[in-house]
Amino acid sequence: MKNLAIILAGGSGSRLKYELPKQFLKLAGKLIIEHTIEKFENHPDISGIFIVTNPRYYDKTIEIVHKNAYKKVKKILKGGATRQESSYIGISAASDDYDNVLIHDAVRPFVSFDIIDKIIKSLRNYDAIDVAVPSPDTIIRVDDKFLIRDIPKRKYLRRGQTPQAFKLEVIKKAHELAIKDGFLNATDDCSLVLKYGLSDIYVVEGSDFNIKITYPIDIHIADKIFQVKNRSLLKFDRNSLKKSLKDKVIVVFGGTSGIGESIVRRGAELGAKTFAFSRKTGTDIRKVDDIKRALSSVEKNEGKIDSIVISSGILEFGFIETMDSETIKELISVNYIGNVLVSKIGLDYLKKTKGSLIFFASSSYTRGRRGYSIYSSSKAAIVNYAQAIADEFSKYDIKVNVINPERAATPMRYKAFGKEDKETLLSPDFIAYHTLNIICQKITGQVFDIRVIDQKKSE
Question: Is 148 exposed, middle or buried (0-12, 13-18, 19+ CB in 10 A)?
């Protein structure tokens, strides 16, 4: 059975109000449409892919396909004025060699192999397949005056997703009948099959992660979904990590204490060549000359730098009302400006190796903490900055990610909070191993949460 995936990418992005249509926005270091195409490109049961794109972005779509060297993309087609028209353009371009067609929104980048598997399996017994999830909300039907006319039983209600899938001859006939009747405003393809009674439509279970990116808030939700899904990257074994780290050259700023020291030590044990810099070694990340000297010395001795880790930071308690201006300046300059300077100067080194840049956030970055306003806000700035330069640096294939550990048993923490129950704190070594693992991954633009509960599970 030959299965064709038609990816509908004709949206204009008007509801997001961005300069580019939503399918061309960056998410986790790639365009949304790239994430979507890769799901079908990498699925073993998909034989071909057609992309139906907004005519204004036809050349851009060609560039994306060329850059990624997708093997399964067979056609790039200019879409129509409506979703229904674009869908028909894709279906009409399909030869009879294809048995089944899966029609998917380009802006649903989280479609899973599991969903595609279930669709293809169900096509053995049904001619039309929809994907849906139960509605958690009560749905009401109103009239033109916004008066409730019906409240259907929730157990029968589902929220539709894509892909929708069909035997090719069935969905082609549905569209032809609709055109003949002048019915041109269908919002999905299953509705046409239902309208003309061409087949039963079987519903397979979708996923709450399989969201359609439509409104600005969806971009933020998508970022969080990537964080949740990427937790699987935190799983590794020492042998594979050792192979990945062999002969890698890793520079750690803040590498003589706490988490940074653990990264240096554990990285060396696993076969990497690690170098520690801090004010203890005469390197101040607030000073451009110090940073240049440190990086230059490593490259001169080793011939390359594969990764730069910035774990330098200071934590001081104080309310803005009473904190002196010099302390404020120092916190910002070390926790934020120093990080910016290291990444700017380090760029030329990482370009050569297509390397990795790692920043450190804090669990307080999502919500400012009283008494730690400057520290919390500087960590929030780091996350924002890292996501921005992940996009900027992606053209060099440099990976930029953020490690976000919960409370850690470090000298800085003890100095700030005194004695605490070790059961509630992360081990610096545990964080170090996960950081070294992320250095070896290809993903970019992500925040990786390292949690105490993960440490307890690993024990």
Answer: exposed
Residue 406, classified by CB atoms within 10 Å of its CB into exposed (0-12), middle (13-18) or buried (19+), is middle
- Tokens coding 86: 């674009």
CA distance 17 to 56: 17
For the CA atoms of the chain, what is the radius of gyration?
26
Task: Count Cβ neighbours within 10 Å for each residue of 125-147 and write b for 16 or more, e otherwise.
Answer: ebbbbbbbbeeeeeeeeeeeeee
* Residue 279 one-letter amino acid: R
Same domain, yes or no: 81 and 224: yes
Q: Which domain, by its residues, includes 36? A: 3-228
Q: How many Cα atoms occupy the beta-carbon half-sphere of 77 within 13 Å?
A: 21
- The 3-state DSSP class for residue 258 equals helix
Residue type, 192: L
* 342-362 mean pLDDT: 96
Per residue in 47-62, pLDDT tens? 999 999 999 999 999 9
Please, which pLDDT band fits residue 437 given cuts at 50, 70 and 90? very high
The total of other beta-carbon atoms located within 10 Å of residue 245's CB is 24
**Rounded distance, CA 122 to CA 165, Å?**
9
Boundary residue ending a domain (228, 261, 284): 228
Phi and psi at residue 53, in whole multiples of 5°? -115, 160
Could you tell me which of 207, 227, 215 has the C-alpha nearest to residue 163? Answer: 207
Is the pLDDT reported for residue 205 higher than 90?
yes
pLDDT, tens digit, 9 for 90 and up, residues 225-270: 887 776 666 677 788 899 999 999 999 999 999 999 999 999 999 9
Q: How far is CA 60 from the centre of its chain?
A: 21
Same domain, 305 and 222: no
52/126 same-domain check: yes
Hey, is 94 helix, strand or coil? coil
**Domain co-membership, 296 together with 329:** yes
Same domain, 153 and 267: no
Sequence-separated contacts (24+) of 279-285 with Cβ below 8 Å:
280/256, 281/256, 283/253, 284/338, 285/253, 285/254, 285/310, 285/312, 285/334, 285/338, 285/339, 285/341, 285/342
With beta carbons less than 8 A apart as the criterion, state whether 223 and 213 touch: no
Query: Kind of pairing, strands 26-27 and 30-31?
Result: antiparallel
Query: Comparing C-alpha atoms, which of 353, 220, 368, 358 is closest to residue 298?
Result: 353
Angle, alpha carbons 417-430-381 (nearest 5°): 60
